[in-house]
Automatic annotation (TrEMBL):
<dbReference type="GO" id="GO:0005739">
    <property type="term" value="C:mitochondrion"/>
</dbReference>
<keyword id="KW-0560">Oxidoreductase</keyword>
<dbReference type="Pfam" id="PF01494">
    <property type="entry name" value="FAD_binding_3"/>
</dbReference>
<keyword id="KW-0274">FAD</keyword>
<dbReference type="InterPro" id="IPR018247">
    <property type="entry name" value="EF_Hand_1_Ca_BS"/>
</dbReference>
<dbReference type="GO" id="GO:0016491">
    <property type="term" value="F:oxidoreductase activity"/>
</dbReference>
<keyword id="KW-0809">Transit peptide</keyword>
<protein>
    <recommendedName>
        <fullName>FAD-binding domain-containing protein</fullName>
    </recommendedName>
</protein>
<feature type="domain" description="FAD-binding">
    <location>
        <begin position="7"/>
        <end position="348"/>
    </location>
</feature>
<keyword id="KW-0285">Flavoprotein</keyword>
<dbReference type="InterPro" id="IPR036188">
    <property type="entry name" value="FAD/NAD-bd_sf"/>
</dbReference>
<dbReference type="GO" id="GO:0071949">
    <property type="term" value="F:FAD binding"/>
</dbReference>
<dbReference type="InterPro" id="IPR051205">
    <property type="entry name" value="UbiH/COQ6_monooxygenase"/>
</dbReference>
<dbReference type="InterPro" id="IPR002938">
    <property type="entry name" value="FAD-bd"/>
</dbReference>
C-alpha cells in the first residue's frame, strides 16, 4: 500500500536499528540500514530484557523467535545478598502469573548476539528492508524541507556514497556519529562513573549454592552481579567492578584472585571457566533532543545508563517501539510529523524521571551502604522484605517498570490507541510514573 514515507535510513544494525527496521518494514515502509562493521557484534552485553522490552519484542513477532532458542528462558527469582552469600531480600516473577496463565511479558533472558541474529533473520525476510554491512556513516548533517542525506563510506574500498531518505534515525550506539554530527562531539550531557566494570560469561555452578536466577551482591569494594544466562547449561553473567586505570591484561591477571574472593565457594580457577571478559566504562547521559528536523535518535545513541539497572537496552527497545508507531502513523496519514517532537519530549522525560534516577539508585545500592544494615536502611530492600508473600503487592512493584512505555498512538489526531490491554487490565500508559519502583532486570 503506498504511503506518505518514501524511505527511512537507519544508522547501525545493533538491536535497536534492526528492531526499528523490522517494525517499519512490517508496515511496508522502505528501510535501509547502514552498519559500519562487516557482521553483527559478538560483544557480551545485554542478556536480560525487562517486561516493557518484552512487550515490544512480542508485538514485533521477535519474542516467539527468541523463545525457539533452547538457551532462552523467562527469569524466575532475583535477589540481593551479602558478600558471604547471605540472602537479604528479593522477588519472584512467578507472582506475575495469574489464573494458571504465565505472564507473557516476564523478564526474558537471551544473550544479545543471539537476539541480534534473530532480528537479522527476521529483517532479512522483509522485502522492504536492506541491511548494508561494512558501510560507515560519516560526519555531516544535510537536510531540507523534502529530504535528509547521509554520506556513507564503503569500508572495504573507501568509496563514499550519498543517500537520501525522509528520515534518518541514529541507532548507532553510545558513540553515535549521528548524535555527534547533530550536537558536536562532546555534547552528550551527563557523566561517566568513576568505576570500571568487567562483564564476563562464566561457567560455574551457582545453583549448587542455592543462588537465584539473578543475584546482586552488596559490598563497597566487591559488589557484583551473578545471573544465569542459559537455560541449558551453567553459564552465568558475572559482572564486577575493578579499580580504575587497569589495562585489559591487568584485569585478566587479577581475575582469579577476585573470583576467589567474591564467588560462593571461593573457587580456584580450575573450578570455573571464563569464556568472555569485557571491561566497560559506564555512563549516565542523555542527548539534548532526540529529533532535529529529519534526524532522529533512539536507544544508546540517545541515552545511556549503567547496566546494573538493566534499563539500557530495555529503555532503547521501548524508544524504538514508540518511534516505529510514530513513523508508521505518519506513513499511514494518521498523524503529522509533529508527533516526532512528542517522541523526543516523552522519551527524554522517561529517561530523566525514571531510567536515570532508578538505574542510578540500583547501582549505588550495591556499593554505597553497609550490607549488614541494608534491611534497616535501604527503603527498597525493606519494602521487598515487607511484601514477601503478598502476591498482589509483588505484582504491583514488578510491573512498575511498564511506566517507561508510552502509547504515542493516543497522541495521533483524534485516533484511538492501538496498544493492547496489558494483563493487569489497564492501558499501558496509565501506569503512574510517580509510583514507579523499577526492579532491576539485571546486568
Ligand atoms: C556489560 C553490559 C551488560 C548489559 N546488559 C544489559 C541487559 O541485561 N539489559 C539491557 O536492557 N541492557 C543491557 N546493556 C545495555 C545494552 O547492551 C545496550 O543498551 C544495547 O546494546 C544498545 O543497543 P543499540 O542498538 O542502541 O546500540 P549498539 O548495540 O551499540 O549498536 C550500534 C550499532 O551501530 C553501529 N555503528 C556505530 N557507528 C556507526 C556509523 N558511523 N555508521 C554505521 N554504523 C555505525 C555499530 O557498529 C553497532 O553495530 C548492557 C550493557 C553492557 C555494557
Amino acid at each position: 500500500m503506498p504511503g506518505q514515507l518514501r524511505k527511512v535510513i537507519i544508522v547501525g544494525a545493533g538491536p535497536a536499528g534492526l528492531l526499528l527496521a523490522l517494525r517499519l518494514a512490517q508496515h511496508n515502509i522502505k528501510v535501509t540500514i547502514f552498519e559500519a562493521t562487516p557482521s553483527p557484534s559478538e560483544q557480551p552485553r545485554a542478556t536480560h530484557y525487562g517486561p516493557p522490552a518484552v512487550y515490544e519484542l512480542r508485538r514485533a513477532g521477535v519474542l516467539a523467535e527468541m523463545q525457539k532458542d533452547p538457551d532462552c528462558f523467562r527469569m524466575n527469582r532475583m535477589c540481593w545478598r551479602k558478600l558471604d552469600g547471605t540472602y537479604l531480600s528479593g522477588f519472584d516473577q512467578n507472582d506475575l502469573d495469574q489464573d494458571g496463565k504465565t505472564y507473557e511479558d516476564r523478564t526474558t533472558v537471551l544473550a544479545l548476539n543471539k537476539v541480534v541474529k534473530v532480528l537479522g533473520t527476521l529483517v532479512g525476510q522483509c522485502e522492504d528492508a536492506i541491511v548494508k554491512y561494512g558501510h560507515k556513516v560519516l560526519p555531516g548533517v544535510e537536510q531540507d524541507s523534502d529530504k535528509a542525506w547521509v554520506t556513507v563510506q564503503r569500508v572495504a574500498d573507501g568509496v563514499e556514497e550519498k543517500h537520501w531518505a525522509d528520515y534518518i534515525v541514529g541507532c548507532d550506539g553510545a558513540g553515535s556519529q549521528v548524535r555527534r554530527s547533530l550536537f558536536g562531539d562532546w555534547e552528550f550531557p551527563g557523566y561517566t562513573w568513576d568505576k570500571q566494570i568487567v562483564a564476563t560469561n562464566t561457567y560455574y555452578d551457582f545453583s549448587k549454592f542455592g543462588w537465584e536466577d539473578s543475584n546482586f551482591i552488596i559490598h563497597p569494594d566487591h559488589l557484583f552481579m551473578a545471573a544465569r544466562i542459559s537455560e541449558t547449561e551453567q553459564l552465568w553473567r558475572v559482572t564486577y567492578t575493578e579499580v580504575n586505570g587497569l589495562t585489559n591484561e591487568e584485569i585478566q591477571a587479577r581475575q582469579a584472585t577476585k573470583f576467589k574472593e567474591i564467588l560462593p565457594g571461593n573457587p580456584n580457577p580450575e573450578e570455573y571457566k571464563v569464556v568472555l571478559t569485557s571491561p566497560y566504562k559506564i555512563h549516565q547521559r542523555c542527548a539534548p533532543s532526540f529529533r532535529v528536523g529529519r534526524y532522529l535518535l533512539a536507544a544508546d545513541a540517545a541515552h545511556l545508563c549503567n547496566p546494573f539497572g538493566g534499563l539500557g537496552l530495555t529503555g532503547g527497545i521501548v524508544d524504538v517501539g514508540g518511534l516505529a508507531d510514530c513513523l508508521i502513523g505518519i506513513h499511514q496519514g494518521k498523524t503529522s510529523d509533529k508527533i516526532l517532537d512528542e517522541y523526543s519530549r516523552v522519551r527524554i522525560e522517561k529517561y530523566r524521571t525514571i531510567i536515570d534516577p532508578i538505574s542510578t539508585e540500583n547501582f549505588k545500592r550495591l556499593y554505597d551502604q553497609d550490607a549488614d544494615k541494608a534491611l534497616e536502611k535501604d527503603e527498597f530492600l525493606k519494602m521487598l522484605k515487607t511484601i514477601e508473600g503478598d502476591i498482589e503487592a509483588s505484582r504491583k512493584v514488578q510491573l512498575g517498570s511498564l511506566g517507561i512505555l508510552h502509547d504515542f498512538t493516543t497522541d495521533f489526531d483524534g485516533k484511538s490507541s492501538s496498544y493492547e490491554q496489558n494483563t493487569l487490565g489497564s492501558k499501558l500508559e496509565k501506569v503512574d510514573n510517580a509510583t514507579v519502583t523499577i526492579t532491576p532486570v539485571v546486568n
